[in-house]
Design a protein that fits this description.
With 290 residues, this protein is an alpha/beta fold. The chain has helices at residues 57-68, 81-93, 108-122, 146-167, 184-187, 193-213, 232-236, 239-243, 257-268, and strands at 48-52, 72-77, 98-102, 127-130, 176-180, 219-223, 279-280. The longest helix is centred in the middle third of the chain and has 22 residues, at 146-167.
Length: 290
Amino acid sequence: MAQDPEPLSDGNPPQHQQRQPGLESEMTPQPRSDAAWYRGSGKLERRRALITGGDSGIGRAVARLFAREGADVSIVYLDEHDDAQQTAKLLEQEGSRCLLFSGDAGDEAFCRRTVTQAAEEMGGLDILVNNAAEQHVQQDLDDISYEQLQRTFATNVFGAFLMTKAALAHLTEGAAIINTTSVAAYQGHPALLDYSATKGALVAFTRSLSANLAPRGIRVNAVAPGPIWTPLIPASFSAEQVTSFGQNTPLGRPGQPDEVAPCYVFLASEDARYLTGQVLHPNGGQIVGA
C-alpha cells in the first residue's frame, strides 16, 4: 500500500506561531497522524486510556492508534479547542469513544477532577499517557525567568506526577503508564535548558515509579522522541529554523507523529508485558545512552 509522502529534503515552509503550545490547524504541512500503513488487531480491546496533550501532534497520533486497536480514549488539552474537536472526530471515525477535558495539567485539582470523571464515564482506567509539554527557546541561562522555569516544570513534570497520582486510585494490575520524555534528556539542547531538565526528570521519574509500582503489577515506561513535526516546533523556533528542523538526523528529516505512536501502542499492550522502567527512542537514528 502506498504511504503518505514524507517531508521534502529541503525542509518545511518557514512558519512561526506566537502562542505556546501551538496549533496543529495552523501548520503547513499538517503533521501526519493517520498511519495509513498501520492495521489494528485488537491489542487494546476494551481498554480505557487517558492521554494528556492528546489534541495534536504525538498525542493525536497515539490516540488514533489506541482507538484503532480498540481502546476508548479520554484526551486532556489546555485550550486548543478546534484541534481537540478534530481529534475527537478522527477517533470516532476509528470507532472509538472520545472524551475531551480542557484545563491545565499542572493544576492538582484539575487532575483529580479530570481523572475521576474520565474513569467514571469510561467505566475505569487502564492506560495513562503523560504527554503534555511546553518548551521555550532561550539562548542564555540569564534569559530564563523564574516564571518560565516554574511554568515549564509545572506542565512537563508536575503534570505527569499529578496525573499519575490521581490515576493510581483507578489503575489495577496489568495497567500501563507511559511518559513522554525526549532525546534532549540524553543529548541536551543549548537553547532548551529548562525543557531538557524536565525531560531528564521524567526519565528518572519513569525508572523510580516503575520500581515503586512493580509489586502492584503496573508497568511504567517512556518514549523519548527525537525531532518530530508537531505544533511545538513552529511555536518554539523561528520561521527560518523551522525550515531545517530535523535535517541533522541520520535519516535526514524530522519524524512524523504517526512514526512515534506505535511505540506507545507497544508499551500499552500485552506485547510489552515484561518491560517496565524502559525508554524507547524513535529519533531518526540518533545514538543515545540508555
